[in-house]
Each structure stands twice: as structure tokens, then as C-alpha cells.
């Protein structure tokens, strides 16, 4: 039944809508679950999504709005009335507000901040004071530490009386008298301990991060240790906020999406695909296409340099797609693997030589297998000389491409660039030109050209 209602709602949103249709749309939307409403909003233009928001109950509209990416939220704000914008913005968490403010014009951001209470404005402004990309922008400042000298009974009373000020109740930071982080205590330990037990006797050693640390690194660290939350401290180890596991998952997902996009040769959309304007999609792709078109000139120049060699042995031209494709794919595999290892913390910049040696061996082994097959097939059709050229080139190209693809992301990270910028198309183009040089040099040596 709900599937039929959902289909009817989607169909109505794609048609012309008049004020007289509002009652029908509101009735349909009221019967659809929140996850399905989120999917509907993500699949329609912002103006249509804003229309549906006006028909939803306030609590359902807020749930849907908070689930959207900050870029999509900004698009919706442009289509909503001022009072609706203020309502949504006031109910958001401070970290979600900070992310949204990065997406809207300065004039809109000022207006939104003025609509907040003094406390909420101070919390949000504090997050905006941290650098973009730092975990301070993504943490929740809504945390109330408990002193190590207090009893379990006192801590539980504090949780009951001030629970609205906590982002999470399951991990409580513990501080000393100067507000410096000294440990963490779980709600379970507080609940099961005798009332007069001090928090210092219950707390565990903290795993924390500085507010200026990179958001992706901190998020992945939290996910790796399997904790529900992580305290965030300032340069003097004073508690300033907390990162929860749901926010860490959002950060990691956004980073993975960005890496996947750049490996594919375009910038991430930061909005649902169907609700992203066509020109925005074009802008996300055109820069990379231009870069790759310019770098592809290298391949053309290599072919021009060895034009005489091709003229003497025309059959060499038949194997160019095989060799360039194999080199590009081998480099892409290595680059993708190492980029992922960097993101997960499995590989560090200091491991560049270890990675180079490892990928060289991997590439050599792959090249030996593929080269042997290439030698057999080419020898049967074109003779052993051509077979030797193909086999040796595959061995050389795979070794070179794997080594290059493995170290380029590490070099990028070392110089402060995004490893994902060395995307698959870029590495493919570079390996094409280098692989062709190796191919023709080997051909000239083996065939005596």
C-alpha cells in the first residue's frame, strides 16, 4: 500500500501543481515513511522539494531536512520562506549549522545566525572559528564533563538534570579541576557502580583528538577503535566538544565519495545526482577533461617521435591499445589500493620506499604472467621476435605502472595535496606516454631497427 502512495506522490511532484493540489499532496506525504520522503526530496529539483516541505508536519520536515547533504540543504533554503528557514536552522545541531553555513552566501549566513538565541549562536560561532577541514568544525560542543573527584551518584544526577546539553549520554568525558581531559566513563559503569564510588575509580584512559586535527583522520580513528564517541580538546587539553560515531560515519562517507569521484576524473557533486543542475555536473567534469586532453598530447608526441619505427614494422601499431590499457589499469589498481590504505592509516608517508619495493614486485609478477601469455599469443601469429617485444614490454610496463601508481598518492600526501587528485585518468595518461616510450625502445633493440 505504501509503495503505491509513494509512487503517487512522486508522480504528482513531477507535474504542474496548483494551490488546490496542496491538500492531496499533504495527505499523500503523511502516509510515506521518513526514509522514503528523504529519497523523494533527493530525486526532485529544489523548488519541488521545498514545496513538499511546506506540506509536512514540522517534526517530519526537520527529520528529512537534517538527513540531507549540506549542499542540498542550501539549495532548499533558497526556495523556502524566511520563517521556514529560521525554523529549520534553529532546530539543527550546532555542527550541522556550521556545515550549512559554509554552503550559503555570507548575507544569508548572517541572517540565519541573527535568528538564533545567544547560546546557540555562541555554540555555532565557536565551531566556525576552527579551520575548514578540521574536526573542530564537525564536533558537537554540547558536552558537559564530570570532575574525576565526583561520585557516581553525582554524575548520574548531572546526566538527569542536564541531559539536553549532551550530544551523547553513553560516553562522559572526565576532567580535572582545570577542565583538562583525564579520562572517560561509560553510562553503564556509572549506573552499576556503588553510589559513593568516585568517577576517578571508574574512568578509562581517553582516546581524544585536538580540535584542529584533520576531520577525516580523526573520524577514521574513532571508527577503527569502535568507540561510541571521542572527546575533542584544545591545544591545552581542555575539553571543547565531542565527536559521535554517526558524525564520524558521515565524514568517512563524504571522504570516500570524494575519493571515488576524483579517481573517476571529476569533482564530487555534493548533492544528489538527479537534483543537481546540469551545469553543475558539467563544471564538475570539464576541468579534468581539459587537463587530460592536454596531457594526452604527450602520447601523440611519443607516436610522432617513433613514427619511423612504426613505418618499418606496421604490426607494432596493433598492440598499442593492449599495452597502454594494461599499463593504465595496473597503475590505477596500485593507486587506488594505496590511496585507500593512506585513508585508513595502514600506510604513512614514511613508508614510501616500502610501498615502492612492494608494488615493484607486484608489478613484476603481474608483468611476468601477462608477458608470458602475450609472448605465446603474439609468437604464434607474428613470430617470436614480435612475441618477445610484446612479452618484454608487458613485463616492463606493469612493473613501471605499479611502482608509479603506488608512490604517487604518497608523494601527494607528503606535499600536502589530496592523494585522490592523482586520479585514474591522470595516471592512465601518464602511463600511456611512458609505456609507449618503453615499447618502442624495446622494439628497436629486439628488432634491430
TrEMBL record:
PANTHER family on file: MAGNESIUM TRANSPORTER MGTE
Q: Which CDD domains match?
A: CBS_pair_Mg_transporter
**Compartment(s):** Cell membrane; Membrane
* Membrane spanning stretches: 286-303, 310-328, 362-382, 389-411, 426-447
- Tell me the membrane topology, using the record's own terms: Multi-pass membrane protein
Q: Which GO terms describe its cellular component?
A: plasma membrane
Q: Which Gene3D superfamilies did the record assign?
A: CBS-domain, MgtE N-terminal domain-like, SLC41 divalent cation transporters, integral membrane domain
Keyword Metal-binding present in the record's keywords: the answer is yes
Q: Name one Pfam family in it.
A: MgtE_N
The record's family statement is: Belongs to the SLC41A transporter family.
Write the record's keywords in alphabetical order, separated by commas. Answer: CBS domain, Cell membrane, Magnesium, Membrane, Metal-binding, Transmembrane, Transmembrane helix, Transport
One term of GO molecular function: metal ion binding
Protein name, as recorded: Magnesium transporter MgtE
Q: What does this protein do?
A: Acts as a magnesium transporter.
- The yes or no answer to whether the keyword Transmembrane helix is present is yes
Please state the protein's primary subcellular location: membrane
Write down the species. Answer: Bowdeniella nasicola
Kindly list the organism's lineage: Bacteria, Bacillati, Actinomycetota, Actinomycetes, Actinomycetales
Q: Which InterPro entries would you find in this protein's record? A: CBS_dom (IPR000644), CBS_dom_sf (IPR046342), Mg_transptr_MgtE_intracell_dom (IPR006668), MgtE_N_sf (IPR038076), MgtE_transporter (IPR006669), SLC41_membr_dom (IPR006667), SLC41_membr_dom_sf (IPR036739)
Query: Which residues belong to any copy of the CBS domain?
Result: 139-202
Assembly, per entry: Homodimer.
Amino acid at each position: 500500500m505504501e509503495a503505491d502512495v509513494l509512487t503517487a506522490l512522486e508522480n504528482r511532484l513531477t507535474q504542474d501543481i496548483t494551490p488546490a493540489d496542496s491538500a492531496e499532496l499533504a495527505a499523500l506525504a503523511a502516509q510515506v515513511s521518513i526514509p522514503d520522503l528523504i529519497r523523494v526530496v533527493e530525486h526532485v529539483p529544489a523548488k519541488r522539494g521545498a514545496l513538499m516541505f511546506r506540506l509536512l508536519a514540522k517534526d517530519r520536515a526537520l527529520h528529512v531536512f537534517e538527513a540531507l547533504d549540506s549542499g542540498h540543504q542550501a539549495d532548499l533554503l533558497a526556495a523556502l520562506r524566511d520563517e521556514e528557514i529560521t525554523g529549520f536552522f534553529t532546530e539543527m545541531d550546532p555542527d550541522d549549522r556550521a556545515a550549512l553555513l559554509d554552503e550559503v552566501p555570507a548575507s544569508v549566513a548572517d541572517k540565519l545566525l541573527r535568528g538564533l538565541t545567544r547560546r546557540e549562536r555562541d555554540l555555532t560561532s565557536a565551531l566556525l572559528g576552527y579551520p575548514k577541514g578540521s574536526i573542530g568544525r564537525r564536533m558537537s560542543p554540547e558536552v558537559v564533563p564530570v570532575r574525576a573527584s565526583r561520585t557516581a551518584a553525582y554524575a548520574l544526577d548531572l546526566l538527569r538534570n542536564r541531559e539536553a546539553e549532551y550530544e551523547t549520554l553513553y560516553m562522559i568525558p572526565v576532567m580535572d579541576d582545570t577542565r583538562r581531559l583525564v579520562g572517560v566513563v561509560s553510562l553503564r559503569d556509572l549506573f552499576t557502580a556503588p553510589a559513593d564510588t568516585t568517577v576517578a575509580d571508574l574512568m578509562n584512559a581517553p582516546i581524544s583528538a585536538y580540535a584542529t586535527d584533520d576531520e577525516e583522520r580523526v573520524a577514521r580513528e574513532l571508527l577503527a577503535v569502535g568507540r561510541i564517541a571521542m572527546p575533542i580538546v584544545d591545544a591545552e587539553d581542555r575539553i571543547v566538544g565531542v565527536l559521535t560515531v554517526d558524525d564520524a560515519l558521515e565524514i568517512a562517507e563524504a571522504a570516500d565519495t570524494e575519493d571515488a569521484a576524483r579517481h573517476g576524473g571529476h569533482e564530487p557533486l555534493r548533492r544528489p545526482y538527479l537534483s543537481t543542475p546540469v551545469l553543475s555536473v558539467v563544471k564538475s567534469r570539464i576541468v579534468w577533461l581539459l587537463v587530460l586532453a592536454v596531457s594526452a598530447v604527450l602520447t601523440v608526441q611519443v607516436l610522432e617521435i617513433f613514427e619511423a619505427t612504426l613505418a618499418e614494422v606496421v604490426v607494432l601499431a596493433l598492440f598499442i591499445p593492449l599495452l597502454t590499457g594494461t599499463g593504465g589499469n595496473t597503475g590505477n589498481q596500485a593507486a587506488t589500493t594505496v590511496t585507500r590504505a593512506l585513508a585508513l592509516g595502514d600506510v604513512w608517508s614514511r613508508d614510501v620506499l616500502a610501498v615502492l619495493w612492494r608494488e615493484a614486485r607486484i608489478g613484476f609478477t603481474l608483468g611476468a604472467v601477462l608477458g608470458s601469455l602475450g609472448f605465446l599469443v603474439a609468437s604464434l601469429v607474428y613470430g617470436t621476435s614480435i612475441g618477445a617485444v610484446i612479452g618484454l614490454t608487458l613485463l616492463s610496463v606493469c612493473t613501471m605502472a605499479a611502482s608509479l601508481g603506488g608512490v604517487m598518492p604518497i608523494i601527494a600526501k607528503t606535499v600536502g595535496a589530496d592523494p585522490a587528485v592523482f586520479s585514474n585518468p591522470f595516471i592512465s595518461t601518464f602511463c600511456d606516454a611512458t609505456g609507449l616510450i618503453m615499447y618502442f625502445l624495446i622494439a628497436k633493440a629486439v628488432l634491430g631497427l
